[in-house]
Write a structure and sequence with these properties.
By secondary structure, the protein is an alpha/beta fold. The chain has 2 domains: 411 residues, Rossmann fold; 254 residues, Rossmann fold (3-Layer(aba) Sandwich). A hairpin with a 5-residue loop joins β16 and β17. The longest helix is centred in the middle third of the chain and has 26 residues. The chain is globular and about 90 Å long. This is Alpha-1,4 glucan phosphorylase. Keywords: Allosteric enzyme, Carbohydrate metabolism, Glycogen metabolism, Glycosyltransferase, Phosphoprotein, Pyridoxal phosphate, Transferase.
Length: 764
């Protein structure tokens, strides 16, 4: 079969035990067996560490995709890095984020199997020698890549795929070469330098940090993986008479490489290097093979997130790859120049090499020219990709550009995390929805069914009670389980606008204070997420949230009508607890900034209603469920663009909106930080004078929309009917559907729903 290789620097897997039991159909059997041993399975599950080998959406998407590819019976492999330390653990100390190393392998990892027999060399540094016999990359430093395999079971179909993660190992002669005479101890200690490559995950989400170690990580995973892919290609005798396959004509028909963002972009020059330098394939033929093999997924349009590596760093670390990139770029620019004679500015815009004080390699441009398909991750994002980010490239090759709206696996994000809801659904429509989520449409027939309305509401209430108990047990916070659970959990970033949420919390607080006897809809506002350790503003946002909570939660006038809780150390295993308990899901990024979002989908399928902007996949969620069944507010992309042309002036909003002014003045005056009144001056200064994400511009619409949320929440029956409508229309957002589209429209394979016979039965 054609093999699919999903290359990603992140796989945010979370815990594996319960997922394995669910997919193998063993959960009840294990539950019973463990119970008979006098143990509690849930207590056991809490002992497992999360595999936190990702930052957020991009890494978690890779994990959902692995689950779907196995469930759809695709011959797919996930390839990445086995980081010794994953995303840091977050502690909150005095309201500030403090990072702690995530030593997730401390007690071993029962799910992985080391495969030393497949260890491979990876080369760095050195120089290029152009000889009559061809090009040689010589005098390199070698690091060994040791593979660790983790099984990826499909849902009850007896398919088990593999996630192979590489760990860096120094060769035994490392730094003990002839020139290093005598200092044996030093040389052995220096092995750490090589092995640091797989030591730690870079903790940036949507931000590029041009560090040499990160470039080493990117090449490390690519070089090891491509050797593995080619070894497997050569040893498969698919209708090939050669004892070893040397002809690469059929390579793109047997191999598909999907690049998860630009992080594995070096696959393109590396595949060229192997084909041309090692396998002696003709350059133009090699380029055809490379393009037909690779496909690129773009994950963001934020300029600060785009990878632009200094040429000087490449020159030192990967000299042959730099030569290849220059040659590919020349070929590409010659073609553009022929089509657009005299358009020098177009050549500059489209070049892979950016000229300037520091010459840089634009990895996104490299991916676009080296792939046969380029996709965005939600319709609105794919449109932005075509019409702005890669506009010139789209004009050149419109057929390359596609959309593949993200999805989530219903196994982990419904069955595993919300068994109560899965049960009441299965009771009405059977179990087919688990592998065909579009069947949730059948629930539309029960929208007015009183018992169903009651059952859905009851499950939500049970989930809320359970989460409230967890919060009290873990963090000693008491919350009102009958209040609205208003949740925003995601990485902390200015574009995600946790600050807008803060302004709503403060506004609500001021309204309660100004009329304490009035009746208010009680709310528990929960905000959670990690800030990149070097992202000052994000860390200030966390401090602001905790400070607001400190004041509001201790004000006797407020009572239990309003609480603001910061959820510490948000991660996959915490998401599995909080999402099923949420009433309101906040998806409030500035229109045009969140490529897709996937948390939004998890909340929708788990029976929360969404308050959000027309951004990312929210647009398609509103289309599926009907805009009137979400709380949509604020500027659309067109409005944001118009405001940019006109010039965004935050002071105008501050002047004309008294409640906004009061909130900002409170933050600014130290009302929420009496110990340090100037604490939040950076935040206020940013909001007032250089807010790229226009928080104030959406404030009024947001507050008004939150009022409508309150209105509906006071009518539990109508609220629950809307919830059911949302669940019924969430079927599109299964990663099974996403992967079927990738398979058919990019990889050229057909997914199969057939269950292969279990290993204990003889095959036909």
């Amino acid at each position: 079969p054609q093999r699919i290789y999903y290359l990603s620097l992140e796989f945010y897997m979370g815990r594996t035990l319960q997922n394995t039991m669910v997919n193998l159909g063993l959960q009840n059997a294990c539950d019973e067996a463990i119970y008979q041993l006098g143990l509690d399975l849930e207590e056991l599950e809490e002992i497992e560490e999360d595999a936190g080998l990702g930052n957020g959406g991009l890494g978690r998407l890779a994990a959902c995709f692995l689950d779907s590819m196995a469930t759809l019976g695709l011959a797919a492999y996930g390839y990445g890095i086995r980081y010794e330390f994953g995303i840091f653990n977050q502690k909150i100390v005095d309201g500030w984020q403090v990072e702690e190393a995530d030593d997730w392998l401390r007690y071993g990892n029962p799910w992985e199997k080391a495969r030393p027999e497949y260890m491979l060399p990876v080369h760095f540094y050195g120089r290029v020698d152009h000889t009559p016999e061809g090009v040689k990359w010589i005098d390199t430093q070698v690091v060994l890549a040791m593979p660790y395999d983790t099984p990826v079971p499909g849902y009850k179909n007896n398919t088990v795929n593999t996630m192979r993660l590489w760990s860096a190992k120094a060769p035994n002669d490392f730094n003990l070469q002839e020139f290093n005479v005598g200092d044996y101890i030093e040389a052995v200690l220096d092995r750490n330098l090589a092995e640091n490559i797989s030591r730690v995950l870079y903790p940036n989400d949507n931000f590029f940090e041009g560090k040499e170690l990160r470039l080493k990580q990117e090449y490390f995973v690519v070089a090891a993986t491509l050797q593995d892919i080619i070894r497997r290609f050569k040893s498969s005798k698919f209708g090939c008479r050669d004892p070893v396959r040397t002809c690469f004509e059929t390579f793109p028909d047997k191999v598909a490489i999907q690049l998860n963002d630009t992080h594995p972009a070096l696959s393109i020059p590396e595949l060229m290097r192997i084909l041309v330098d090692v396998e002696k394939v003709d350059w133009d033929k090699a380029w055809e093979i490379t393009k037909r093999t690779c496909a690129y997924t773009n994950h963001t349009v934020l300029p600060e997130a785009l990878e632009r590596w200094p040429v000087s760093m490449f020159e030192k670390l990967l000299p042959r790859h730099l030569e290849i990139i220059y040659a590919l770029n020349q070929m590409h620019l010659d073609r553009v120049a022929a089509l657009y004679p005299g358009d020098i500015d177009r050549l500059r815009r489209m070049s892979v090499i950016e000229e300037g004080d520091c010459k840089r390699i634009n990895m996104a441009h490299l991916c676009v020219i080296g792939s046969h398909a380029v996709n965005g991750v939600a319709r609105i994002h794919s449109d932005i990709v075509k019409n702005s980010v890669f506009k010139d490239f789209y004009e050149l090759e419109p057929e390359k550009f596609q959309n593949k709206t993200n999805g989530i696996t219903p196994r982990r994000w419904l069955l595993l995390c919300n068994p109560g809801l899965a049960d009441v659904i299965a009771e009405k429509i059977g179990e087919g929805f688990i592998t065909d989520l579009s069947q949730l449409k059948k629930l539309l027939d029960f929208i007015n069914n009183e018992t169903f309305i009651r059952d859905v509401a009851k499950v939500k209430q049970e989930n809320k009670l359970k989460f409230a108990a967890y919060l009290e047990e873990q963090y000693k916070v008491k919350i009102n389980p009958s209040s609205m659970f208003d949740v925003q959990v995601k990485r902390i970033h200015e574009y995600k606008r946790q600050l807008l949420n803060c302004l709503h919390a403060i506004t609500l607080y001021n309204r309660i204070r100004s009329d304490p006897s009035k009746s208010f809809v009680p709310r528990t506002i929960m905000i959670g997420g990690k800030a990149a350790p070097g992202y000052h503003m994000a860390k200030m946002i966390i401090k602001l949230i905790t400070s607001i909570g400190e004041v509001i939660n201790n004000d006797p006038y407020v009572g239990d009508r309003l609480k603001v809780i910061f959820l510490e150390n948000y991660r996959v295993s915490l998401a599995e607890k909080v999402i099923p308990a949420a009433d309101l899901s906040q998806q409030i990024s500035t229109a045009g900034t969140e490529a897709s979002g996937t948390g939004n989908m998890k909340f929708m399928v788990n029976g929360a209603l969404t308050i959000g902007t027309m951004d990312g996949a929210n647009v398609e969620m509103a289309e599926e469920a009907g805009e009137e069944n979400l709380f949509i507010f604020g500027m659309r992309v067109e409005d944001v663009e118009a405001l940019d042309r006109q010039g965004y002036n935050a002071q105008e909003y501050y002047k004309h909106l008294p409640e906004l002014r009061q909130a900002i003045d409170q933050i600014s005056s130290g009302f929420f930080s009496p110990q340090d009144p100037g604490c939040f001056r950076d935040v206020v200064n940013m909001l007032m004078y250089h807010d790229r994400f226009k928080v104030f511009a959406d404030y009024e619409a947001y507050i008004k929309c939150q009022g409508q949320v309150d209105q509906l929440f006071m009518d539990p029956r109508e609220w629950t009917k809307k919830v059911i409508r949302n669940i019924a229309c969430s079927g599109k957002f299964s990663s099974d559907r996403t992967i079927m589209e990738y398979a058919r429209e990019i990889w050229g394979v057909e997914p199969s729903a057939t269950k292969i016979p279990p290993p204990n039965l003889p095959r036909d």
